[in-house]
Structure formats: C-alpha cells, structure tokens
Amino acid sequence: MKLSFGKDKKLKSQKAIEKIFYDGKNFHRFPVRAVYFYDADLEQEFKIGVSVPKKKFKKAVDRNLLKRRMREAFRLNQENLKLNGKLNIMFIYSGKEILPYSEIEKSMVALFGFLNSISDAHIENK
C-alpha cells in the first residue's frame, strides 16, 4: 500500500467541516479526539482533517508541530483503517502540552480501531 496523504484524503470543505461539528459524533482517546460524520454522498471512502486549538497552544509553531505529528501518525498507520463506509473525520488534539510522537501515534491507532467498528455498524444498518 502506498503510504501517502494526498489531496483526495484531505477534508477541506467548510460545509463538510461544519456538518461534522453540528451533526457528528465524537469519541476520545487521550490526547486526540475524533469527531466523525457518516456522509453517504462522499465519493471517497473517507476524508480526514486535523486541528489543534489556538486557545491551548498560542504559538503557531506548536500547533503546526502537533498537526504534522497527527498527520504523520495517520499516514504511517492508515493501512490499519479498514473503513467500509463513507466517513468524514476530524482529529482534534486535546492535550494541554506537547506530547511525543509515540503517544500521539498510540492514540491514533486506538481511534482507528473504534472507527473501523463504527464503519461496520453503518454498513449493517443499511
């Protein structure tokens, strides 16, 4: 499998992001929270976005570092994500301090397992 995080996997639509936060469901595995929304109109299997709150990390350098770490954890472990549904997912860093990459990666892998089970549930409900 090609380990890339291309444009086709990036969640960029403002409408889709707003819909995730208004109608989506969320779950948490410290230090990352995932908010997802099942979108039947989505062409791709999934699209993801990452976010770090400005309220907790004032410096853009720190926010960018954490976003890079979350994207890299996703990119390297995306083969574990076996989604059967069409999901839009936002990963939000919820820690109060900058944690090492290994902790962020563990959290992302744990979230992938939960997302896989959610995806299977959406397919069964059709």
TrEMBL record:
Pfam families: Ribonuclease_P. Signal peptide: none annotated. InterPro entries: Ribosomal_Su5_D2-typ_SF (IPR020568), Ribsml_uS5_D2-typ_fold_subgr (IPR014721), RNase_P (IPR000100), RNase_P_CS (IPR020539). Keywords: Endonuclease, Hydrolase, Nuclease, RNA-binding, tRNA processing. It catalyses: Endonucleolytic cleavage of RNA, removing 5'-extranucleotides from tRNA precursor. One of its GO terms (molecular function) is 3'-tRNA processing endoribonuclease activity. The keyword Hydrolase applies. One of its GO terms (biological process) is tRNA 5'-leader removal. Gene3D superfamilies: 3.30.230.10. Its EC number is 3.1.26.5. RNaseP catalyzes the removal of the 5'-leader sequence from pre-tRNA to produce the mature 5'-terminus. It can also cleave other RNA substrates such as 4.5S RNA. The protein component plays an auxiliary but essential role in vivo by binding to the 5'-leader sequence and broadening the substrate specificity of the ribozyme. HAMAP family: RNase_P (MF_00227). Consists of a catalytic RNA component (M1 or rnpB) and a protein subunit. This is Ribonuclease P protein component. It comes from Moheibacter sediminis. The gene is rnpA.
